[in-house]
Design goal:
alpha/beta, Rossmann fold, four-stranded parallel β-sheet, globular
Length: about 250
């Protein structure tokens, strides 16, 4: 399989790949509870694996993923969606660790502003490395509006660069109008397809009347999980390549 992970490539390999297709795939996410059956880095790992697969299929390069910097008091399951402390307990942490102000007194709005500036900084880095198209895969869904705001601000000053930002369900919304969840069937199926070594649905209670902790969406304990995962994952990869090609065509580069 052709090498596409930027951080693992030699300079001449990068130049060759970039000359063929000056497109960069960037996954952004975080570390957050995704049920007892999934890794805490699901959002970012999921996004990065999709970026790698898209680059392998259609050209371009998968850049190092961004795990850190998102608003931890704005949209984090351990902070916003764990009222009874079950998630913190499972993590072996006191609920007080996620009390308001635990990020040093920085407000959620300040965290969001910082993150947008961080993304703009990354976009300038990618421009300096010779890329003309950037596909930002927002594995952590609340990052999508921030990425789009950062992209719009950047492109106003850099009209020679095209940036697309969205969650993995956005490019396939016509096929999956309800696509996207939190550690439910959608994310678990994709993760099991991309990294089966990191998923173990058997950890969850066999009794489906007992809801999984911190899971939002369709129950991942579904008999067609693997079949669904393979189909939706391939559809997402195909749509990522198509969107990247569309932006290159708009710039007259394809």
């Amino acid at each position: 399989m052709e090498k596409v992970r930027y951080e693992e490539m030699k300079p001449h390999e990068i130049v060759e790949a970039r000359n063929k297709k000056p497109a960069a795939y960037l996954a952004i996410g975080g570390v957050e509870w995704h049920g007892e059956h999934n890794p805490v880095g699901l959002d970012t790992v999921k996004g990065h694996e999709l970026c790698i697969k898209a680059a392998q299929k259609g050209g371009g390069l998968a850049m190092p993923a961004l795990f850190w910097g998102e608003s931890r008091e704005g949209n984090l399951l351990e902070f916003n969606h764990d009222p009874d402390g079950k998630v913190a307990e499972k993590m072996g942490l006191p609920k007080e660790n996620f009390a308001p102000g635990y990020m040093g007194g920085v407000t959620a709005d300040e965290e969001r502003d910082f993150y947008k500036e961080l993304l703009i900084h990354i976009f300038y880095q990618l421009k300096s490395l010779g890329f003309r198209v950037i596909f930002v895969l927002c594995g952590h869904y609340p990052l999508s509006p921030l990425a789009n705001q950062a992209a719009e601000k950047f492109m106003k000053k850099n009209p020679d660069i095209k940036i697309y930002a969205g969650i993995e369900a956005d490019p396939v919304r016509d096929k999956y109008p309800k696509g996207g969840d939190h550690a439910g069937k959608w994310e678990t199926a994709i993760m099991k397809t991309l990294r089966p070594d990191l998923v173990d649905v058997n950890i969850l209670p066999e009794d489906k009347n007992i809801p999984p902790i911190g899971v939002f969406g369709e129950d991942p304990r579904d008999n067609d999980l693997e079949e669904f995962g393979k189909k939706v994952t391939q559809d997402i990869i195909d749509s990522m390549v198509a969107k990247t090609d569309e932006m290159l065509s708009e710039l007259g580069l394809l």
